[in-house]
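Tokens as discussed.
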């Protein structure tokens, strides 16, 4: 266990709370990325279902009518909701 010249314990960046903060940031960034893309795919799926219910025929080569609106909303929701859910779950496991 290395300390500074005054004997104040471990050096910078090695305290448990700093390691936990770094872990939360890493998990949050990763789940934001994953939530962004998975939310977009789910949004396009919902758009396909809505388009089928409306009787809309998509342009050739596109998955659904107005798919980009559904994808954008799904991406935003996924990029926000997945990190929130995961970080709340990780925070619940910490001992008081």
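Sequence:
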């Amino acid at each position: 266990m290395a300390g500074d010249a005054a004997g104040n314990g471990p050096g910078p960046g090695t305290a448990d709370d700093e390691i936990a903060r770094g872990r939360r940031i890493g998990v949050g960034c990763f789940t934001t990325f994953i939530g962004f893309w998975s939310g977009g795919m789910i949004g396009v799926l919902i758009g396909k279902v809505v388009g089928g219910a409306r009787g809309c025929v998509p342009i050739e080569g596109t998955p659904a009518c107005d798919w980009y609106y559904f994808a954008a909303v799904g991406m935003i929701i996924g990029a926000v909701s997945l990190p929130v859910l995961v970080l709340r779950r990780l925070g619940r496991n910490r001992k008081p």
